[in-house]
Amino acid sequence: MKRIIAIFIFIMLTFCACSPAVDIENETLDFSTSGVFKGTDSFLFDSLEHGEFRGAWLSYLEINPKKLNSENEYKAYIDEILTRLGSFGVGDLFLQVRPFADSIYKSELFETSSCVVKKRGDSLPFDFLTVIIDEAKKKDIRVHAWINPYRIMSKTRNEEISSQSVIGKWLCDEKSDNIIRIDGGIYLNPASVEAQQLIINGIREILKNYNVAGIHIDDYFYPSDSKKIDENHKLAAG
Questions:
Q1: What is the rounded distance in angstroms from the CA atom of residue 172 to the CA atom of residue 76?
Q2: For an engineered disulfide with 110, which of 23, 103, 114, 208 has Cβ 3.0 to 4.6 Å away?
Q3: What's the predicted TM-score (pTM) here?
């Protein structure tokens, strides 16, 4: 049942990201339009019609492990990965673009991820997401943006977050209910309306600036399964 639900969510997210019936600016969806299952969405049904849908996940650990700063060198690195995926018939790449409330792409909302640069917040030598999308297109591989919505820091990962960033300002405010600290980890509060809006705005930013095939929300890293979390933090209305 869990797998069926996951597939259903993925399909719905793909529609939201690709369909011409989506109004990103006004946050509205119109599934009444006859063209909603045509055009860019047709690839999903073509794959299913032929009995398979082959995808692969590229995590923050593999995106730039050597911390390459040369765009040409990075293209060669990604080309090797994509060539191997293509040899297995993979047509869809799920790319972890925001693993720790950061970004591998140019963002006005999130700091640059240390998975692509030496230190969190450093300037991008080039736009990693654009390079990967462009190189994948050459091999007929679609790129889906995979985000982790809540996790900022894990107990085994300790990075300096700029006090000038959105999340940094929340961390500096002891009264802010947008952040949850527990068991050595730091998370966006799922019950905070402001935190929810940051996640939504981050998705909108990706869809506006990059030609991704869909948005994949996975590895929620909910702060805790303890009832105290929900008791101590306000619940979002409605």
A1: 41
A2: 103
A3: 0.75
Q: Which phi and psi angles does 48 have, rounded to 5°?
A: -65, -35
Encoded tokens for 226: 């303890």
- How does pLDDT run across 151-192, given as a tens digit for each residue? 998 877 888 999 999 999 999 998 889 998 888 889 999 889
3-state secondary structure of 193: helix
CA distance 119 to 106: 15
Residue 209 exposure: Cα atoms within 13 Å on the Cβ side: 14
Find all residues with CB under 8 Å of 183, minimum gap 6, and list them. Answer: 155, 224
Q: Is the distance from CB of 126 to CB of 71 less than 8 angstroms?
A: yes
Measured over the CA atoms of residue 8, residue 12, residue 13 and residue 17, the dihedral's sign is: positive
Helices (H), strands (E): how many in the chain? Answer: 8, 11
Q: Is 100 exposed, middle or buried (0-12, 13-18, 19+ CB in 10 A)?
A: buried
